Amino acid sequence: MKKVVTLFVAIGLIIALTVNCAFFSVPDEIEIYFNNCVVVEVDDSADTVECVDTCGEVWAFYGTNEWQVGDNIVLTMDTCNTQSIYDDTIISVKGL
Questions:
Q1: DSSP conformation letters of the chain
Q2: CATH number of 32-95
Q3: N or C: which end of the chain has fewer CB within 10 A?
Q4: pLDDT at 22
Q5: Is the pLDDT of residue 21 over 90?
Q6: What pLDDT shows up at residue 4?
């Protein structure tokens, strides 16, 4: 009887670990890149800054306190593990 109980406990643990791993997978690695931009608009009332990168794409972020039109900045971007740039996320902003 003791061997049967031990066998069922072992099978239960294996199933529990398998189910747990299926629902709680390790997150994908963050893939980052740097994007050089020029500030083209600062909206103090909305607290937003718009900038244009070297490919002509417009990016926006919050926090107007230190930026002026014409500032050169570098955006640290997360690809969100996709090929498209349109879902990329700005991680940080630094001035040059």
A1: -HHHHHHHHHHHHHHHHHHHHHHSPPPPPP-EEEEEEEEEEEETTTTEEEEEETTS-EEEEE--TT--TT-EEEEEEE-TTSS-STT-EEEEEEE-
A2: 2.40.50
A3: N
A4: 46
A5: no
A6: 57
Cβ atoms of 29 and 43 closer than 8 Å? no
Residues sharing a CB contact under 8 Å with residue 52, sequence separation 6 or more, in sequence order: 37, 38, 40, 58, 59
- Six token digits for residue 5: 């109980």
Q: What is the mean pLDDT of the chain?
A: 82
What letter represents residue 43's amino acid? Answer: D
Choice between 49 and 9, residue whose per-residue pLDDT is larger:
49
Read off φ and ψ for residue 30, nearest 5 degrees.
Answer: -80, 130
Tokens 């406990």 appear where? 9
